[in-house]
Amino acid sequence: HPTEKALIVNYSIEATVLDEYQNTMIGDKKDAQKIIRLKSLGPATDIRALAKEVINRCKLIHPTKLVEVEQLLFYLQNRRDTNLP
């Protein structure tokens, strides 16, 4: 997130109605977004533990993305506060 300590997860939802022969009758796709606010993220936060918690709570993020989540959390943890005047 550009100003908050939060991760933004972008994902797509696809629904398809099939006929009795498994042919597509109707299909629809929708893009969506989930914001995961990280209220507990601070200078002393255990990044690895928080990344695991994020992945366990948000089923939209596959466990193979653990390293990427850790990197994003590390960036957010060390980013300068952009809300200060």
From TrEMBL:
GO terms for molecular function: kinesin binding. It holds the Pfam family KAP. GO terms for cellular component: axoneme; ciliary transition zone; kinesin II complex. GO terms for biological process: cilium organization; microtubule-based movement. This is Uncharacterized protein. It comes from Rotaria socialis. The lineage of its organism: Eukaryota, Metazoa, Spiralia, Gnathifera, Rotifera.
